[in-house]
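[job 0412] stage=complex_fold ligand=NAP status=START
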Amino acid sequence: MQAWLCENPVGVDALVWKELPTPQPGPGQVLVRIHAASLNFPDLLIVQNKYQMKPDLPFVPGSEFAGVVEAVGEGVRNVAVGQNVACLAGTGGFGTHALAQAATCMPLPAGFPHVDAAAFIMIYATSHHALVDRAQLKAGETVLVLGAAGGVGTSAIQIAKAMGARVIAAASSEEKCALCRSLGADATINYSEHKPSGSLRDEIKKLTDGKGPDVIYDPVGGEFAEPAFRSIAWRGRYLVIGFAAGPIPSLPLNLALLKGASIVGVFWGGFSRQEPKASAAALAELAQWYAEGKIKPVIDSTMPMSELKAAYAHMGSRGVKGKLVLVNPGA
Ligand SMILES: NC(=O)c1ccc[n+]([C@@H]2O[C@H](COP(=O)([O-])OP(=O)(O)OC[C@H]3O[C@@H](n4cnc5c(N)ncnc54)[C@H](OP(=O)(O)O)[C@@H]3O)[C@@H](O)[C@H]2O)c1
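[job 0412] stage=complex_fold status=DONE, emitting structure tokens
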């Protein structure tokens, strides 16, 4: 097998494409021949030693991938050799083969392409857990999605619309806002037009008749978190998804008191480990929504696996709309 190896986590430039021995699956594991792997924000952090999970060195990055099962270890019952699967393994995806825990693999129904499957679990499972479970979003409520044209952002728009909510999508360019409207967003805010961030509040107020959004989905953090939270509706739920902008914002707690609002942490990885049955049920519902055409990953572009470094650069410069997927030619 071949893979991008991280021997020294000092950044993308230090990754090397190497020939490695093909591993054999141990008990509960499967060996997957990778057809497609998507880039998620943690993949960017993990090769810089900036992610919460720090794998032993050397390791192959690539949290999420899809392909065909080539071998199964002892005790594996949920998948079989020859089956198409999507896997969220945390690492291993940026190569031709990877081991994964069978329990974390999603068997793919017919008609589920590898490219969509490789871009599915992380974003939709996160947004389902956030909006359905943590926010208890109801039809008719208004959701403000920040970073709305990114991976988790696009999935949040689609899930909120599937649940009958009104969506205001906020992103940093008109091009990104146009993508959000094409996904069903009812209104958009180009927040690069609202620097300093104070005028963002006026725009949110205008778009919600002064009431504010019931739910705010924030994967960005940074300078817009506080003005967004100041705009939230009575009994609003502010979903803490991530900090793509870098700095972790602080929010004045008196605002939560004044609005009767909740600041709600969302950690899908923890949820799937602590509550595996609820997590599996959510994934089954998402697979059903995919089959019904209610959700579909937005694929910015597919690139050959050999171009991983260019893919990382595209994501790091905020250029990606939806998901970037790397494919193994001829797999
Ligand atoms: N809590 C969980 O369980 C969970 C699960 C998955 C992901 N996450 C987190 O969610 C965040 C987004 O992940 P993603 O995979 O959707 O990433 P993504 O596709 O790169 O989207 C992130 C968005 O953040 C915005 N952004 C603002 N400042 C940025 C900066 N300095 N660098 C890069 N992007 C910036 C960009 O939108 P604009 O240009 O429009 O501002 C970009 O589209 C990450 O922090 C990730 O760790 C959390």
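The chain is about 30% helix and 25% strand.
[job 0412] exit 0
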